[in-house]
Amino acid sequence: MSAPVIIREFSLFRLKRSIILGVKSLWMHKLRSLLTAMGIVFGVCSVIAMLAIGEGASYEAQQQIKDLGSQNIILESVKPSNKTTAGEQERSLILDYGLTYNDISQIRATVPGVMVTIPSREVKDFIWNEAQNVDGAAVGTVSWYPEMRNRRVVRGRFFTELEMSMRAPVCVLSKSLARQLFPLTEPIGDTVRIQTSYFRVIGIIEDDPSVAAANEESKGRGDQADGMEMMIPLTTLEDHFGEVIFKYRSGSFEAEKVQLHEVTIRISEPDQVMPASLAIRHILERNHKQVDYRMTVPLDLLRRAERTKQIFNIVLGSIAAISLLVGGIGIMNIMLATVTERTREIGIRRALGAKKRDIVIQFLIETVMLSGAGGVLGVALGLAIPIMITHFAEMVTIIEFWAPALAFTISVLTGVLFGIYPAFRAAGMNPVEALRHE
Amino acid sequence: MVLSSLPEPVIELRGVEKHYRMGDTLVKALHGVDLKIMPGDYISILGPSGCGKSTMLNILGCLDQPTVGQYFLSGQDVSKLSDDDLSQVRGKRLGFIFQSYNLIQQLTVVENIEVPLYYQGVPEKDSREIAVGLARKVGLGSRLDHRPTELSGGQQQRVAIARALANDPAVILADEATGNLDSKSGGDILQIFDELNADGKTLILITHDEGMAKRTSRTIRLKDGEIAYDSYTERNPA
Predict the structure, then answer these.
(1) Facing residues of A233 across strands?
(2) What number is the ipTM of this complex?
(3) DSSP of B165-182
(4) Measuring CA to CA, which residue among A217, A194, A369 is closest to residue A296?
């Protein structure tokens, strides 16, 4: 037998054999290995699943806010509460409140960066299609409304500037209104009635995405049937309903005088939005003795949502860190027991020429494989849970491509971190004593 | 025997002492051992328990280092080597056979024989070939893929012998190699030792069995950490 050629290097080849050896050792104690890896499995799985759910929830919130337009500032008229009205306006039959054309012209003149304003005014009443009726609102606005407010015209078209200047009796229905008024027939081309005015339907626009978000912010709009709206040219609205809007409702009578119900102001530069909002608030505070308006700054909401998400991420990170720590401690505990149990094997290997670092590598590979296998299982489970949640609970979940990769990497790193001590303890054993160990 | 014609001893101990601290007292397990072992020697080291046999084995096997004195293995002083170098020496120049076989339970016969080759970095293909050859040589050609638990004591010890031979070591150390075996299997093992020595291998058998000592060409008796009797020096007075 010839003396073998000595090639002492840590090649991939050696690594492969070490891995095979590790698999054999772990396979000898299948149940124990599985239970040990469980800590990591649940750690990794919970990280991925919670990240996906969190991302999904914050995506939905951010999407709603973005739909309002991040460069927009939205002003709305709000009916003042009865307490404040009683003092000032001595039981006038006509409620006079809200945003005025004067406010808007002041804002346009003094606030820098104001690009476009979209005024709107609404008449709340029943909308009729022959015998069908829905409690809704006719919203008078301008032709560039859909573009500025990120609302898509799903069918037909929006009214044009020409129709505005012609004060044409045309209307665009919101999707849910169209569904209620025309459950069976084609709405486009048909006519709807509000009070004594008739309008021809020319298009259908998607529902206001801010309705849900705005509802959370306010309670003052409870009387309005949300989303049930038809858009008509602002000029047409003035013609048909005048300055004072009357409303008859099951015996009671209400009249209000509101110049503008809603104004969307678009600011040219995103970084001008916050200063502009302060300036606008200042103007409104000076012009209005009572708070009969509400200002919504989507960018501000977006920032707040992002801050909430940050806090959520910190909480999530802590939970993940703790669960992986617990998993890591479990692994370390078992590896220490394994090292003690295999003391004799370590002694034999040392007697047969294994260096300390060979022993370290052997145990480290085993630990990393254990945690790595746990990581793989965890990733699989962590991907399955959000998919199931989306499927059964119909919640949006978003799996970022880096989340499984990150979770897996962390699981392997946990293996390395918590495997180092047992591995060095194994390598540090005195070969003579290790061989004598029972 | 052609011992005298080979001038270079394979093992040389010069004034080797080993001290242990047990509590407050200092125990001298070996004091002043001088020993030369020539290539091809067939030696039995005998002595009652507590005479320093185990310490002697540990030092000869480079598992432990002398407190005082020098140990030359194939001409190299190994008494002051680092832990890594000592591992290298064990793996490359020494073969171990233990009383309790000491096979690794999760590995097959062939894989057990391959362990020393693995730590020397022998490529898988070559080491497999060497291991299979050795398994056949000790009569286990039909049990290559068996695990130690599926083998009898005698068979396990034969695997251990094959493993000890894997790196073609300069010296094979056997510690009570037949201690756990019945006389039939023990006899078979001793038969293999005889054959190995006939092939020119240097064997050191540590034992308390006088019968074993009769088979070897040289007998060393230890008593209280010293060499009390050495058949070689008796025959060749200095």
Answers:
(1) A141
(2) 0.92
(3) HTT--SEEEEESTTTTS-
(4) A217
- Burial letters B204-235, b for 16+ CB under 10 A, else e: bbbbbbeebbebbebbbbbeebebeebbbeee
Q: Which residues of B touch A357 (CB under 8 A)?
A: 84
For residue A354, the chain B residues in CB contact (below 8 A) are 87, 91, 119
Task: Look up residue A99 and give its DSSP letter.
Answer: B
Is B120–A6 a contact, with Cβ atoms under 8 angstroms apart? yes
Give yes or no for A349 touching B (CB within 8 A): yes
- A106-112's contacts with Cβ under 8 Å and 24+ in sequence apart are A106/A283, A106/A287, A107/A265, A107/A280, A107/A283, A110/A279, A110/A283, A111/A276, A111/A279, A111/A280, A111/A283, A112/A272, A112/A276, A112/A279
Query: Side chain identity at B144, as an amino acid letter?
Result: L
Structure tokens at A186: 């084609």
Of the candidates B105, B107, B121, the beta carbon closest to that of A8 is on: B121
Look at residue A249 and tell me whether its pLDDT is greater than 70.
no
End-to-end CA distance of chain B: 19
- Contact list, A344 vs chain B (CB under 8 Å): 102
Domain ranges of chain A: 12-63+305-436, 115-268
**CA of residue A129 relative to chain centroid, distance:** 38
pLDDT surpassing 60 at residue B182: yes
CB contact under 8 A, A351 and B96: yes
Q: Cβ A435–B122 below 8 Å, yes or no?
A: no
Question: Which band of pLDDT confidence, cut at 50, 70 and 90, is reported for residue A86?
Answer: very low
Q: What is the pTM of this model?
A: 0.71
Interface test with A, best of B84, B104, B196 (most A CBs within 10 A): B104
Which pLDDT score is estimated for B72? Answer: 94
All structural domains of chain B = 39-63+82-235 (3.40.50.300)
